[in-house]
Design a protein that fits this description.
By secondary structure, the chain is an alpha/beta fold. Helices cover 60% and strands 7% of the residues. It contains 15 helices and five strands. The protein has helices at 24-37, 59-67, 83-95, 102-114, 122-129, 133-141, 147-150, 166-169, 177-189, 194-205, 211-217, 222-240, 247-258, 263-299, 318-359; strands at residues 3-7, 11-12, 43-47, 53-57, 72-78. The chain has a five-stranded mixed sheet. Helix 10 (194-205) crosses helix 12 (222-240). The longest helix is centred in the C-terminal third of the chain and has 42 residues, at 318-359. It is elongated. Residues 4-95 form the ParB-like N-terminal domain.
Length: 360
């Protein structure tokens, strides 16, 4: 493989190559290295009909040398002319280089499979690039997200604020579009670990939770979503438990077995059973109230201070905004009145029980 020096001004970049994002700090480090040690690895080019050369790979090294004003660059000249082979070689080379972003990979794979001049299959790319088909498919799934999410996707596995790793996005990639991007941005903002992302996703995949409730969940923080998941799972586990045999009934059976069939014993047994039934009915009636309370606490977002000055509020439709605020206040006042009443009933019941104990 011959390496020749080619004049820098005769070399052109390939604007269609897979890699187009170049970190400025990384580029500066490369320039410093070239100034000190020279270019240690040549770039690869191919000839063009006009007597010039087009880069196959090594754009970053070319940019560094050109910025430094180097008159020539060491090059390997390729004789390959097939566009598919050249593009595959560009991808293969960049896969070994640091800084080739997941989105650049995804776009390159997508181009190979959907551009008419390539029309490759996942199986073909897998065999050519030495990557599992699942790897290629997962990369392409990143293209489902909006640009606001894509620009936050970075290489590696480190969780960073306002950045996203592939591992964080893989669990949510199959969610409906109306939840996909919003949840991804919450995960980025709140630096949600992958293990917690998987738990939160269970809420959005649960068919027993309505879409309206799922929409409201998107107003929560990552921590609040995790707490909601925890409460929801606990409630679901409680509902799944088989009903326990009432203690009073068991006691009643024991009394029937041990006591004589005297009228006084029968009367006592009936009285005990009636009291037990009354307690059971009360417990059954209280359970839905407690469940409803837990649900409200789980889905109610944390309080954040609202704007305190008129100048800070910018509704798109003032009349509709005011009507919605009235509706919200009305519903909240009704809920508040009901729960205050429940609280007072529980307090009065507790006080009555304490008084009765004192009397005894």
């Amino acid at each position: 493989m011959d390496i020749i020096q080619i004049a820098t001004h005769l070399i052109d970049e390939d604007t269609d190559q897979p890699r187009y994002q170049f970190d400025e700090d990384s580029l500066q480090e490369l320039m410093n290295s070239i100034e000190e040690l020279g270019l240690l690895s040549p770039i690869k080019v191919r000839t063009t009909p006009d007597g010039r050369y087009k880069i196959i790979y090594g754009n970053r090294r070319y940019k560094a040398c050109k910025t430094l004003g180097r008159p020539t660059i060491p090059c390997i000249v390729s004789t390959v002319t097939d566009e598919l082979e050249i593009y595959l070689e560009q991808i293969a080379e960049n896969l070994t280089r640091e800084g080739f972003s997941p989105i650049e990979e995804a776009e390159a794979f997508n181009k190979l499979m959907n551009d008419p001049k390539f029309s490759s299959s996942t199986k073909f790319l897998s065999s050519k690039l030495g990557k599992p088909e699942s790897y290629i498919k997962n990369k392409c799934d990143l293209l489902k997200f909006s640009n606001a999410v894509k620009k936050r996707i970075v290489s590696g596995t480190d969780i960073k604020k306002d950045k996203l790793t592939e591992q964080q996005l893989l669990p949510i990639k199959d969610l409906p579009m109306e939840h996909l991007d919003a949840l991804a941005l919450i995960i980025a903002r709140d630096e949600v670990p992958v293990s917690d992302v998987k738990k939160i996703v269970k809420l959005f995949k649960d068919k027993d939770i309505s879409n309206g409730t799922k929409d409201k969940l998107l107003y929560k923080s990552g921590r609040e979503l995790l707490e909601t998941w925890s409460v929801y799972e606990q409630n679901k586990a409680e509902r799944a438990k088989p009903p326990a045999e009432p203690k009073a009934e068991a006691k009643n059976n024991k009394q029937n077995h041990n006591s004589s069939n005297t009228p006084s014993a029968e009367k006592e047994t009936a009285s005990t059973a009636a009291a037990a039934n009354e307690r059971t009915n009360k417990e059954a009636a209280a359970a839905p109230i407690e469940s409803k309370l837990q649900q409200l606490l789980a889905f109610l977002p944390a309080h954040y201070p609202l704007p305190s000055e008129v100048e800070q509020i910018y509704p798109n439709d003032e009349e509709n905004f005011v009507n919605n605020v009235d509706l919200l206040i009305n519903n909240m006042e009704k809920q508040l009145a009901e729960w205050k009443n429940v609280r007072e009933l529980v307090k009065s019941k507790t006080s009555a029980a304490e008084i009765e104990m004192i009397k005894q």
